Amino acid sequence: MPKGYWVMLVQVKDPVRYAQCAEAGLDALERTGGRVIMRGEAEVRAGNPKGRVVVVEFESIEEARERFGDETYQAAVQLYDGLADYDFLIVEGRADGPAPRLRTIAPSWGVVPPPETV
Fold first, then answer.
1. pTM for the complete prediction?
2. How large is the average pLDDT for residues 77-87?
3. How far, in Å, CA of 74 to CA of 27, rounded?
4. Nearest 5°: phi and psi at 92?
């Protein structure tokens, strides 16, 4: 069964107060059954994403969806009100391991096969 993930892209507006709330937020995530597998500042190479990324893993996509409405998590969300802007995504992992290499479609020259070496 594929795992489920929360992906949060966060733009912190008040770093001092945000840091004070961080431990309570992490505790709430763990109490909902999630496991924080990534959190930190993003090294932006393209686009205009928010600066901080948090990824939380759940045993299934169903659990990830269900836990979003959990009272413990929603109470923690209230702590961050006004301290940060964020995008919140729920993503399903792959049941069969890493994604296979895809063929790239280049707009001006058609289909380009993947390189022979990884």
1. 0.75
2. 88
3. 12
4. -90, 130
Each residue's pLDDT tens digit, 92-117: 998 776 666 655 555 555 555 556 65
DSSP state of 83: T
**Residue whose structure tokens are 């929360």:** 6
Residues whose CB falls within 8 Å of the CB of residue 12, separated by 6 or more in sequence, listed in order: 18, 51, 52, 83, 84
All structural domains of the chain with their residue ranges: 4-112
Strand (E) or helix (H) holding 89: strand 84-92
The per-residue DSSP string of 57-69 comes to EESSHHHHHHHHT
Contact status, residue 88 vs residue 55, Cβ threshold 8 Å: no
d(CA 83, CA 12): 6
Matching residue, tokens 């597998």: 37
Q: What is the sign, positive or negative, of the torsion defined by CA atoms of 22, 28, 29, 35? A: positive
Q: CATH number of the domain at 4-112, out of 3.90.550.10, 3.30.70.100, 3.30.110.10, 1.20.120.610?
A: 3.30.70.100
